[in-house]
Amino acid sequence: MGHGNEIQYLSAAILIGIGAYGVIRSLEEYKRHGEPVKTLARTLLVSFFLFGIAGGLGVLVTTAVSLKFWMLQAVSITLGYIILASSTLNLLGKLERYWRAPSVRREKSRGRKPPLPPAAMLTSTEDAKVLLKTIFGYFNVPILAIGREHPESWAKKMGVEPAEYIWLTRVEHPQSVSPSALHILNSKITTFLKNNPNGIVYIEGIEYISFYVDFKSIAKFILAVRDAAIIHGGHLILLVTPETLEPQQYAIFKKELETIDVQRIINNLVGVALFGTLAPGSAPKSPERNDDAGTQSPQEES
């Protein structure tokens, strides 16, 4: 083996070694995080495989078959791979640090509206988590969260520090409201929306409220919050689990609230391309509401 061949084989070994490390690291990040980090990690995994492992094997084949232009191929693949890998890893690191930085309470919105309809519905806790983290990271809007879990447990689970949190429980607590006191919830929500233009009201735990209040009252409460969000320029996001409701009950929420495509919003904000991450503030226009979203529910007419 000549001295030149040793350099070529060393270059190929470096490519394959870094490629293998990158594939393993990207796979770990893919398993550990949700969107949009998952999308970026998946893209990075493919890049490591193509430019690292496949590229290294290509250098080996070129060296074994023909020495012509081996230096140009080895250097170009190596430099291109290093630039791609370092840029993408840096992007992943910045994005993750941005979301995991110590939460600082957001100031009131200064005019940038998130790409959300006035009243929306989600059917998955994971979708809610991804959406709230994305909105929290990209827009300077306050969030009022209403949930069944203790405030600290909810914030840890969702990865978001809301401006305000209401704990649905009958236990005495500074942040608690009884699930049967819908009038108090409505008052607090309305005050929040008045004081926080573009603010987001996120509600979960409807099935828990139904233990204490009939569905007719719950539907009227949600529709009142929807109207308040429209009037004050805010947003309502309701988490509904279809399995916990009767079909006709779920149909009412589905008619009055827009079911949003979380992945589409993520793709528009973050981008599915490797270097397609958009800067905060470059959000797309808000999705249009359903044509029948403003119609009055039979339950409301009652």
From TrEMBL:
The alphabetized UniProt keywords are:
Membrane, Transmembrane, Transmembrane helix
Where would I find the DUF835 domain in this sequence?
A: 139-257
Q: Where is this region: Disordered?
A: 281-302
The answer to whether the entry has keyword Transmembrane is yes
Looking at the keywords, is Signal present? no
Residue ranges of the TM segments: 6-24, 44-64, 70-92
Q: Which residue windows does the record flag with biased composition (Polar residues)?
A: 293-302
What is the protein name stated in its UniProt record?
Answer: DUF835 domain-containing protein
Matches recorded under Pfam families: DUF835
Q: Coiled-coil region(s) at which residues?
A: none
Q: Return the InterPro entries for the record.
A: DUF835
